[in-house]
Amino acid sequence: MGVLYLTSDDASYFNSESIESAKVWLRAIAVELLEWWTQKLKAELAHRLALRPIDIRLLQLAHRGFKSKEIARLLDSHPATIDQRFARLSMRLNVTSRALAAKLAHDNGLLDE
What we know:
The chain is mostly helical. The chain has two domains: 14-48; 52-113, Arc Repressor Mutant, subunit A (Orthogonal Bundle), CATH 1.10.10. The protein is 66% helix and 0% strand.
């Protein structure tokens, strides 16, 4: 949760009509700041977990329910290669399965879905 704190020397400023016209801009600024901060946290987490773009893509596809053969076909790879990548990802994320790895990534906002 974030807070955009505004203040004024004029105690009546925030009760005036002038603040009404500024609300749209203030909300837009708050949303931009929140989006920026969220992206920063996601990038830091991905870096800390040593996740590459291909890892994120694999986790996205696993989260959507794709199996190794389907993922291999989409990524022009082999199912065994996909299984090996998921095994390494699961070890890196300290989980026991690709489903848990995908859930962890989703729950932490790493999947842009």
